[in-house]
Amino acid sequence: MTDVTPTTSILTVDDRTRRRNVAEKRFRTYGVIAITLAMLALVGLMTSIFSGGLPAFKQTFITLDVYLDPAKLDKDGSSDLEKIRKVSTFGYAPLIKKALEEQLAKPELAVEGLKSKDAAKMISKEGAAEMRRFVLANPDMIGETVSFKFLASGRIDGYYKGRVTMQSAERDKNVSPQQLQFADKLKDAGLLKTSFNWGFLTRADASENRPEAAGLGVAILGSVYMMVIVLFLALPIGVAASIYLEEFAPKNWFTDLVEVNISNLAAVPSIVFGILGLAIFINFAGLPQSAPIVGGLVLTLMTLPTIIIATRASLKAVPPSIRDAALGVGASKMQAVFHHVLPLAAPGILTGTIIGLAQALGETAPLLLIGMVAFVREYPSAPPEGFFDPAAALPVQVYNWTQRADPAFVERASGAIIVLLVFLLLMNTIAIILRRRFERRW
Amino acid sequence: MSVKLTASAIAVAAFAATTATARDQVQIAGSSTVLPYATIVAEAFGENFDFPTPVVEGGGSGAGRKKMCEGVGPNTIDIANSSSRIKQSDIDLCATNGVSEIMEVRFGYDGIVFASDIDGPSFGFTPADWFNALAAQVVVDGKLVANPNKQWADVNADLAAQDILAFIPGTKHGTREVFDKKVLEAGCKATGALDLLGDKKACHALRTDGVSVDIDGDYTETLARLDANKNAIGVFGLSFYQNNTDKLVVATMDNVVPSTETVASGEYPVSRPLFFYVKKAHLGVIPGLQEYVEFFVSDDMAGPDGPLAEYGLVSDPELSATQDMVANGTPMQPLN
To answer: What is the CATH number of the domain that holds A432?
Structure first.
């Protein structure tokens, strides 16, 4: 008999165990590093978006009393609306200039070397349009002095957001230090104020000459219209397809083929759906360009695979015992599915749908091809006719604004990203709440 | 169930409505250089007329012309904006698709400028400098050799001793065409390389050692790249430069400072005409189309004191001839 002397003890850690422990520790560190990097990237992205975009939610306004001169607006004094209508916005601009001249003449507001022509440039060109709209709506106000709250021009607005400084104004062709001094004096006199920019959410897009007037109104409406179309088309079609495939379809090579194709479609680059939409919906079916109906249909095609996959997964997750029990007490196959399986799968289906919608909401590429990346200033009318009117979409508006020359549009683009993020966050929160509240586990 | 019914109702309505209703707003697509001008006009048009604001899309000159030539009918566009003249292939495509008469409207000129970071040195170029800086092969002692120049001072002793780095528009841009023609070819000729190369097209070959960078995006991308590379020179449109004078310093060309005046007079050499093309079959069918075209070329908009000139358009000295042409609806003559 030989003595077996133990070479290892459970009390001292041997080499192998130490190596395994170290490996585990190392892996945890890698994990922490990965998370930290991801968080840093997210924080960097958010900081750049929010620091760039939050100023878009504030806007500088200049309040001015403008004399609606009958000699300019109603030359023959006939108060005939048709004749007043003939006066274009070019005819209104001198009235604003005159009102500013009066302010400049006041000793406490005077700025040396500032011409009234340059002072007039401090007010958005949208101002003349707003005045014309007001006069056409209230023709009896001609001859009165009316107080208007005008948008300050992009550069003046930028001065109160730190984008424009006295130094940069000296080199800038579009703004002069005198204008900024005058703006400061107007501010001291209480005529220039910065307040929350509701217009950013409600106004339509504006041209390059007036970034201060650009808003997301049409884009938000367009996105909402498209989401409504996607929801009303993709949800029923997707759920019906999944129920058939999951519960009724025979298992054969054909259904396998369909299944493979659906998974494949989910991974197809979204621009492909845009090409398809252009060919089928616009060129073949003759639907109008730039309309939410075409955008909605294209995004429906894109969202369908996502919804079908999510729905099938949640149908699969319902235990077979539920079906068996229902069939056992004499329910038909359809009753078993619609009375028992579908309600239990509903939270999963809804979650999948909302995630699919969120994905569609942020999609730009397919919209490029169907004319949605356009300058649209008219609000689409109420549905269903509105589905056929031209509209923009939120991600497209971001894309459009980043391409414009005036730096004020960069700020607007970041602001639009924030709005888009808020919408996405809302949708994802709803998805999570639904899942938490209604999901059942077996 | 009702959900499904609504969905199918929408789908049915979709196909029914299109055949029944005509479009009530003008639709425009094309050049991204013309886009800002077209949006300014569209906005003012919507404000001052009883017609809805036209829908203006970008996408590039070539794409816009192709879209216009897709056919006649409310689901095709009415106007193609273009920063270069229409090509015979476009006209042929139009003809095959039944778009027989096109109206060519030249509404002004656009200058192309060379600019660098405002805190850097300023430059005074000649086309020959650019050719010697960027061409694949340049003339040294009467022979063609691979481009040896590293700094601007190597090209021209008067220029700053700064590494050559240029951001030029990519080949899909209309701006690149003008750069090739007005700068590279002129420089090619001036340095005598044209005689040795024999072909104008050969003058367009650029060096591939990373000194010349093609920008396929728009001017905002070029500006962002300049911000990161302070010693680079970028190619911009005149209007873009005028909106960013606080960040950029512009270079002269042949000792001429680019401005709307020098481009209009022809002193500043690097410029091009801007066009839009109107589908004549849509005039009188699409409400507001004739009015929009007339409004675009009116003195109020495209004149030397109008909002377009303020944004950077070089007004066309022959604008009144264009106005007559538009009023009479004269279609364009075959390209010569």
So the answer is: 1.10.3720.10
Task: State whether B244 and A407 contact (CB < 8 Å).
Answer: yes
Is the CB of B23 less than 8 angstroms away from the CB of A288?
yes
Q: Is residue A130 domain-shared with residue A260, that is, in the same domain?
A: no
* B13 at A interface, C-beta within 8 A: yes
pTM of the model: 0.85
Please indicate whether, in this complex, the C-beta atoms of B42 and A377 are within 8 angstroms of each other: yes
**Range list of β-strands (E), B142-211:** 143-146, 166-169
Distance of CA A71 to the CA centre of its chain: 45
Q: Which residues of B touch A173 (CB under 8 A)?
A: 242, 245
Summarised one tens digit per residue, pLDDT across range A258-284 is 999 999 988 889 899 999 988 899 888
Q: Within this chain, do residues A137 and A263 fall inside the same structural domain, yes or no?
A: no
- Tell whether the model's pLDDT for residue A442 goes beyond 70: no
DSSP states of B300-324: HHHSTTSHHHHHT-EE-TTHHHHHH
Task: Please tell me if the domain spanning B2-110+273-328 has the same topology as the one spanning B111-271.
Answer: yes
List, for residues B229-270, the tens digit of each pLDDT value. 888 999 998 888 888 888 899 999 988 999 888 888 888 988
- Rounded distance between C-alpha atoms, residue B294 and residue B278, angstroms: 11
Residues of A in contact with B13 (CB under 8 A): 384
Domain check: are A323 and A252 in the same one?
yes
Distance to chain A for B209, nearest Cα, Å: 29
Domain boundaries, chain B: 2-110+273-328, 111-271
Fold of domain B2-110+273-328: D-Maltodextrin-Binding Protein; domain 2 (3.40.190)
Contact B165, B229 (CB under 8 A): yes
Average pLDDT of B104-114?
91
Asked if A172 and B74 come within 8 Å (Cβ–Cβ), the reply is: no
For A35-72, what is each residue's pLDDT tens digit?
Answer: 999 999 999 999 999 998 999 999 999 999 999 888 88
Chains A, B: CB contacts under 8 A, how many?
142
Residues A265 and A187 in one domain: no
Looking at the complex, report in whole angstroms how far the Cα of residue B283 sits from the nearest Cα belonging to chain A: 18
Asked if A258 and A169 sit in the same domain, the reply is no
Of B67, B62, B63, the closest CA to residue B78 belongs to B67
- CB-nearest partner of B27 from A164, A236, A289: A289
pLDDT tens digit sequence for B53-96:
999 988 888 888 988 998 888 888 999 999 888 889 999 999 99
For residues A210 and A59, give the distance between their C-alpha atoms in angstroms, rounded to a whole number.
13
Contact flag A384-B10 (C-beta cutoff 8 Å)? yes
Q: How far apart are CA B92 and CA B98, in angstroms?
A: 10
Cβ distance A208 to B36 less than 8 Å, yes or no, reads: yes
d(CA B226, CA A409): 19
Torsion angle defined by CA atoms of residues A269, B60, A281 and A206, in that order, rounded to the nearest 10 degrees: 100
B53 touches chain A (CB under 8 A): yes
Compare CB distances from A172 to B56, B58, B245 and report the shortest one's residue. Answer: B245
A124 lies in which domain range?
A: 58-203
State the pLDDT at residue A227. Answer: 94
Q: Do A232 and B10 touch (CB under 8 A)?
A: yes
B245 in contact with A at a CB cutoff of 8 Å? yes
Note the CATH number of domain B111-271: 3.40.190.10
Q: What is the ipTM of this complex?
A: 0.85
